[in-house]
Amino acid sequence: MTDDKKESIEHLLRAWGEKPYRVEQVNHGIYRELVSHFSGITSLPIDLREKLEKEKIAFSVIRPVKSIRSADGNTEKTLFETEDKKRIESVLMRHIGRKTVCVSSQIGCPAGCVFCATGKMGITRNLTAREIVEQVLFWNRILKEEWVKETGEKWKPTNPPHGVRVRNIVFMGMGEPLLNYENVLSAVKTFNDPKKFNIGVRHITISTVGVIPGIERLTEENLPVHLALSLHAATNDLRSELVPMNKAFPLRKLMDAVDRFSARSGRRIFYEYVVLDGKNNREEDGEALGKLLSRRLAHVNFIPYNVNPECGKDLRKPDIESIRRMQNILMKYGVPSTVRMTMGDEMAAACGQLANKSDEEDE
Question: Is the C-alpha dihedral spanning 126, 259, 273, 300 positive or negative?
C-alpha cells in the first residue's frame, strides 16, 4: 500500500498515537512478507491487528476479477475492479531469470492512438498511486504462493530468491503515465523504496506518447528511470495521423524535450514503433526514422501490430520481412533496433490490446 495522504495506514496509525516503528512493521508485512490481510502481520499486537481489520480503510483498493494465462505459461493478465467499480488490467511477463509487470496508470486513455484498443475507450480517471502499486503487490503475492507451493520452503521476506519477485516494471498498460504525473511518480518512489519493493529505478520504464510538460518535469526530477517514447512515425504529418496527441505536442518540439531528458539523465531513449503494414513500414519510413535518430542516443523497438477489432479493418499486421528491411536501413544510420517478442497476443495482453472488455462479466 502507498502513503496516499489521509487514506494511508501511516496516517491512520499516527492518528491513533501508535509509535513510528508500527508503521515499519506494517510496511514489512505488506511489502516483504506479502501478507494478504492485516491479521497476517504477526509482528503487530493482536488488538492492533483486530483494530485494523475493523477499520474502514481497505487492505486492498483493487480486487482481481478474472485472470487468464497464455498457452506457454509465460504471460498472465488480470482484470481488476477498483472501489468505484471501474476496471483495469495488468500483465505479468515471466522471462527467464526475471519477472516484469506491465502496469496501468489510468482507467482508459486519452491519447487515442489509432492502433490501440485502450485508446478507443477514452479516459475515465487517473489511478491513484495506491491503485498502481497494488497491481505489482498482487503479482508478488502470486509469485510467492507459486514458489512456496513448488518448493515447500518457508518464505524469506528479507532475502527472497531473486527470480521470485517482480524485478522490472514498465508503465505500458492502460493510460498515459505522464498525464497522471504525481501518482505515477509516487508509485515509482514506492517501488524504489529499499524497505518496500526495493526495485532500482533503472529497472523502471515510463512510456509516453510524448507529453512534453511531463517529460520536462521528469527531466528535472533527476531520476534515472528509462524513458520510452511511443514514436510510431518519423514525420510530423504521419505521426499526427497515427498519434492524435502529436497535434498538441509536435514532433520537433517533442524530440527537443526528449533530447534534454537524455542529456540530463545520460540514458538511452527507447523508441517504440508499432509497425502497421502499408502505413509506416515503407522504405521512405525507414529512411525518415534513420535520419531522425541517427545522431541521438536511441534504440528502436519494432512492435508488429497486434490486431485489434476495435481499431478497424484497414490496419494490418506486417510481415517480418518488411521489419527486417527497416532494421537494415537503421543499421546504415547507426541506429540499433530490435523486434519485440510478442507475449500474450492470443489473450489480448500484448501491446495495444489492453481494454476494458469485461465490464459486464461476472467474476
Answer: negative
